[in-house]
Amino acid sequence: MPDDGSVGRLEASLPDDFSRYLLRGALAALTQENIATRVQHFSVSMRELSQYLLERLAPDNEAIKRCAWYKQNPDVDGPTRRQRALYASRGGLTDSFLKSELNLDPKEFHADIGPAFKALNKRTHLRPDTVIIDPAEIESFANETIDALLEIFDVTQDVRSEIISRIETHLHDEAIGAFINETIDSLDLIAGRYETGGVLTDEMHVLGIDAEAIRYEITGSVDVTLHYGSRSDAAAIDENFPFTCTAEASVSAPLKLLQDETQMKVDTSAWHGEEG
Fold first, then answer.
1. 108, 262 in Cβ contact below 8 A?
2. What's the DSSP call for residue 266?
3. Contact present, 171 and 218 (Cβ < 8 Å)
4. What domain range includes position 145?
5. Which residues does the UniProt record annotate as the domain Predicted pPIWI-associating nuclease (predicted)?
6. By the number of CB atoms within 10 A of the CB, which of 115, 128, 131, 187 ranks highest?
7. Distance CA 26, CA 51 (A)
8. Domain co-membership, 157 together with 205
9. Do residue 177 and residue 138 come from a single domain?
C-alpha cells in the first residue's frame, strides 16, 4: 500500500464524497492480490480522480477558452488538464501583465508543473500489457502516482498565492484614488460636506480571478473632515472611520479599479453612537 502520509494529504484535500470514493476505490484495487491487473485498475481510478479534481478546480470550459493565453490543443476536445491548472492559478491574467507588472515568468509555471503532469500521465495511462506484480514495485508506483497528483495541486496553489501576493502590494495607490472618485453615502448622511484626507490601508485581498475580471476587497481607515453650518457659523470636525472597499478590475488592466464596479463603505456607527 502507498505511504499513509501521502494518502492522508490527498484525502484531506478532496472536496466531496465522490472524490473520496474514487480514491478509496483506487486504493482498494491495490489490495486485490489475486488480480494481475490491479495496478491498471488503480491507474484508471486515479486518472478519473485527477480529471474530476481539475474539472472541479476550473469547471467553466468557455471561460478558459476566453483567456488570452489559451490555445486549443487539436488532439483534445476543450481545455487540457494542464490548461485547467493554469486557469486555476491565474485566471485570464495576461503574460504581459505577469511579466511587466509582477515580474513573474509564466514559463516558470510550465517548467514547474510540466514534470508533475508528465509523471501523472505516465502512471495513469498504462499500456494494456503492462503487468506489475512485485509488491515493492506496486507500492513505489502508487506512491509516485499520488505524489505527482499532489505536486500538481501544490504548484498550482503556490503560483496562485504568489500572483495574488504581488498584486496586493500594488493596490495602495488605487485604494487611495477610490476615495477621490467615490461619493460616500454614509458620510453624506452625517455632514453637509466632507473632505477625505489620509487613507491607511490595513488589508488587501484578491477575492477571485476569472477570465474577464479580478475582484478585490480592501479594508482600512480614512481621515475625514466633516463640515457643518454656513460661513458665519461654520464648524469643522476631524474624524477617522474604518472602511471596506470592494472593487473590480479587468484582467487586461488588473491594477486599475473600475469606477462603476467600486463600492466604498465607510463605517460611521461610532459617530452615531456618540450622538446617541
1. no
2. E
3. yes
4. 4-168
5. 13-148
6. 187
7. 14
8. no
9. no
163, pLDDT greater than 80: yes
Please give the grid coordinates belonging to residue 153. 495541486
DSSP 79-135: --HHHHHHHHHHTT--HHHHHHTT---HHHHHHHHHHHHHHHHHHHS--TT-----H
The H-or-E segment that residue 263 falls in is strand 263-266
- Ramachandran class of 22: left when φ > 0, alpha when ψ lies in -120 to 50, beta otherwise: alpha
Domain count for the chain: 2
The rounded distance, in Å, linking the Cα atoms of 87 and 261 is 23
pLDDT in tens, 204-235: 899 999 999 999 998 988 888 888 877 777 78
Q: What is the pTM of this model?
A: 0.82
pLDDT tens by residue, 92-108: 999 999 999 999 998 88
- Cα dihedral angle (89, 84, 254, 67), rounded to 10 degrees? 160
Are the C-beta atoms of residues 149 and 46 closer than 8 Å to each other? Answer: yes
Are 47 and 178 members of one domain? no
Query: Which residue in the block uniquely carries the three cell numbers 457643518?
Result: 228
Asked if residue 23 and residue 155 are part of one domain, the reply reads: yes
